[in-house]
Amino acid sequence: MKTLTTDVLVIGSGIAGLMTALSISGDKSVILVTKGRLRASNSFYAQGGVAVALDTGDDILFHKEDTLKTGHALCDERAVQILVEEGPDRIRDLMKFGVKFDKTKEHEFEFLKEGAHSRRRVLHVADKTGFSIENVLARQVKNRPNLHVYETCYLDELLVENQTCFGVLVTDLKQKQAFRIFAGATVLATGGAGTVFEKHTNWFGSTGDGLACAYIAGATVRDMAFYQFHPTAIQLQKRKKGLKNFLISESVRGEGAIIVNQKGDRFLFDDDERGELAPRDIVSRSIYRQLEMGNTVFLDLTKIQGSIPERFPVIYRNCLKDGVDIAKTSIPIIPVAHFMIGGIETDIYGQTNILRLYACGEVASTGVHGANRLASNSLLECIVYGYRVACHINQQDFIARSISARKPLSEKSTLLTAKQLKKIVSTAQKLMYQCAGIVRSEEPMRTGLQNIHAWLDILEGSKTSSQTWKETYHQLVISRLILESALNRHESRGVHYRLDYPKTDPLLNYHHTISAK
User: How many CA atoms lie within 13 A of 412 on its CB side?
Assistant: First the structure.
């Protein structure tokens, strides 16, 4: 079997992975492996921007307070302090790389306001901030002589021995050939797992591979009950491929867009005095209740001042392709799965409980987001903690060495066809959206968990090396972790809302739900 050796291995090419790779010192060899093309990730689709306290009148203390308040007594205060304190310097790094954030006519940075922020502090590049940052960082990666990129390579498993990670087993999807990469340090920056839900905003490759592989290898996973739903997505009817549940950035509400039902009622104020600028968990649940009552919910952008096609060009063009002119008409919206708040437990340097294994970005649980992520903190977390991971690795003297690793399974060993596997996935996605979505209760979750266990048993009895089998298995593992964590948390907190436990239990403040294999 083909074998590669490197000082540092980074899995994932979103902003967290790219920032980590670029921050590794030039005297170390780096391999970056990505499941799709270099620019394929959830980061690529991030519209809104990056939250950072740089505006006049803002302060890192205000940013910290907003983050802690939104996190509902589950944030790690030290992790949040690092985020807001180091954020401005990392933003300056992005600008040195070539990212050009939007400015006003007076040549000052234009800061937007989003839900639960007390100040305007969201830097952006139109409504394609993630796309713009990704492109700049990807160009930088290609110019680094110590950095080699392997595209369209699927993560099979982590190579772990004596609670130490020595690399990975991957499959080249084009060559249909497995190979090993041994590394001094391995960094998981594989993103989220939104595809476990029927309705989501994620890139189609977000099947939770990194988290599932880490959990299987013995990594501690934390707070999987908390999955953030974005309240404003439009169901595109004409789109055949890609993101059917197209996200409408929260920044449009910060600029004056309103949410109403078919009667014209701005019902959000019944639940929170901030209305459209309430945190995402409150807005999502409020919309959900309207839909359950049989109402239709609309997002009206016509109240925004200025030219919508100029201010939000990506959103405008995508909706127009579907025959919807958002500058002239309101659009029907639904809440959909968006961001994995839980993940692989790490310390403030991205270290996991497995030696030489790091995690950053959406796959990691740093403690920054608590029970509900403050809007636009995700991209900031990627650059701050991606950089911290690299700095910690730079100070180590890890030497790559090989270990014995099993051979990959034969593709012929499966008892399930690709069609059967896809049927399991689609059924599981519908189940997860219904029983582990915005509103939860014990009986539906227990029924869902029984089904997930049954499907896992079927898959474990028909192992194969095919990508479809592995993605299906990983999605089911993530689904099981979400349901088990949600069932074990007997309260409502942030994005985790239970009808049978509707109140927040103060005894569970700063109490995390841990999953370990």
Answer: 0
Residue of 177, 282, 281 lying closest to 228 (CA atoms):
281
CA 276 to mean position of chain CA atoms: 23
Query: To 10 degrees, the CA torsion angle through 114, 115, 118, 124?
Result: -20
User: Domain span at residue 217?
Assistant: 2-226+338-394
User: Bridge partners of 183?
Assistant: 6
Examine the residue annotation and report whether 280 is marked as an active-site residue of this protein.
yes
Q: 44 with 181, same domain?
A: yes
HEC readout, 450-465: HHHHHHHHHHHCCCCC
Classified as helix, coil or strand, 98 is: coil
> Any idea which residue has 């234009």 for tokens?
110
Inside any domain, residue 305: yes
The per-residue pLDDT for 405 is 63
pLDDT band at 44 (very low <50, low <70, confident <90, very high): low
The DSSP output letter for 373 is P
Distances (CA, A) of 385 to 86, 98, 350, 367, 517: 9, 20, 7, 11, 26
Whether the Cβ atoms of residue 188 and residue 344 lie closer than 8 Å to each other: yes
Q: Give the number of domains in the chain.
A: 3
The dihedral through the CA atoms of 86, 71, 112, 58 has a sign that is negative
CA distance 247 to 41: 15
Same domain? For 174 and 283 the reply is no
- Tens digits of residue pLDDT in 303-336: 898 889 998 998 999 889 888 899 999 999 999 9
Confidence (pLDDT) at 242: 53
Catalytic residue among 253, 280, 480, 489: 280
- CATH code assigned at 315: 3.90.700.10
Distances (CA, A) of 1 to 165, 283, 407: 19, 52, 8
- For residue 239, what are its two tokens? 């789109």
